Amino acid sequence: MTSIFDVLRRPLVTEKTNYQVNRLHQYVFEVADNVTKTQVKDAVETIFDVTVLRVNILNVPAKRTRRARSRRLMVRNAAYKKAVVTLAPEDRIPIFEGVE
C-alpha cells in the first residue's frame, strides 16, 4: 500500500448495512485486495477521526449472472474484499448520515 487513502475503496450502502449502521454501529467498506485488519483500522481512524473497536474482513466471491435479453449470455461479476468496521457507540461517520 502506498497510502492509507488506497485502503478504502468505497462505502457499501444497502438495506442490511443501513440496519447495521443504525443499530449495531457497524460500517461496511469495500477495501483493496491485499489489506489487513490493522491497515483498515488505521485508515478508518485516521480519515474519519473515530474510535474503531473491531474489524472483520470478508472475501466476497465472484458470481455468474445472465443478461435479460439473451438468457444464454453469462456475465461474471468480479470478486472483492469487504470490511465490517465496528465503532464506539458515540462515534458516527458522516457519509452514512443521509440514509435512514
Describe this structure in words.
Helix content is 22%, strand content 35%. Strand 4 (63-66) and strand 5 form a beta hairpin. 14% of the residues are buried. With 100 residues, the protein is α+β, with helices and mostly antiparallel strands. The model has no long low-confidence stretch (mean pLDDT 90).
Short summary:
By secondary structure, this protein is an alpha+beta fold. The chain has helices at 15-24, 37-48; strands spanning 8-11, 26-31, 52-60, 63-66, 74-77, 80-87.
Beta-strand content:
35-45%
Helix content: 10-25%
Domains, number = 1
Strands in their spatial order, largest beta sheet: 1-2-6-3
The CATH class, by name, is Alpha Beta
- Indicate the CATH topology: Alpha-Beta Plaits
Class based on secondary structure composition and strand pairing: alpha+beta
Ranges where pLDDT stays below 50 over 5 or more residues in a row are: none
Q: What would you call the shape? A: globular
**Could you give the count of β-strands?**
6
Main attributes?
100 residues, alpha+beta, Alpha-Beta Plaits, two-stranded antiparallel ribbon, globular
Helix-strand layout with pairing:
Layout: E1 8-11, H1 15-24, E2 26-31, H2 37-48, E3 52-60, E4 63-66, E5 74-77, E6 80-87
Antiparallel strand pairs: 1-2, 2-6, 3-6, 4-5
